[in-house]
Amino acid sequence: MTCFVMEDGKTLLQWCKENDFHYHMLYRRLDAGMGLKEAIQEVAKMKDSGRKLRSHPVLFWEGRPLVDIYDDRSYRLINQRRKRGISLADAIKMGKLTKK
């Protein structure tokens, strides 16, 4: 599990909420190895461009963001199941998920 903590001691998720940033957009860039300053600038540029950014709710399981628990394929699979009206608990219980 990759956990990003900002200089002020806040988690990435807390910082994103307070600064109106898209958590997943920033997280994926950091997880791919991009530097913090560069990732923030890139997401800010996209945000300021006026483009409509898709916002996904941050889903939690047992107090942790799902993106910190499951790989990208599994996270997408859980979201697809949720869009079909399946509860989060049932979507996870259905299996075929890979943890990080």
Descriptors:
about 100 residues, mainly alpha, two-stranded antiparallel sheet, 2 strands, about 50% helix, globular
Tell me what you see in this structure.
- The chain has about 100 residues and is mostly helical.
- It has two domains: about 1-55, no CATH class; about 60-95.
- It contains six helices and two strands; from the N terminus they run αααββααα.
- The protein has helices spanning about 10-20, 25-30, 35-50, 65-70, 70-85, 90-95, and strands spanning about 60, 65.
- The protein has a two-stranded antiparallel ribbon with strand order 1-2.
- A hairpin with a 2-residue loop joins β1 (about 60) and β2 (about 65).
- α2 packs antiparallel against α3.
SSE blueprint and pairings:
Elements: H1 12-19, H2 23-31, H3 36-48, E1 60-61, E2 64-65, H4 66-69, H5 72-83, H6 88-93
Antiparallel strand pairs: 1-2
Helix pairs in contact: 2-3
Rg, rounded, reads 14 Å
Distance linking N and C termini: 6 Å
The gross shape turns out to be globular
Order of helices and strands: HHHEEHHH
Number of domains: 2
The percent range for helix content is: 40-55%
| Unreliable residue stretches | none
| Order of the strands making up the biggest sheet | 1-2
Short description:
The chain is mainly alpha-helical and 100 residues long. The chain contains 6 helices and 2 strands. The model has no long low-confidence stretch (mean pLDDT 80).
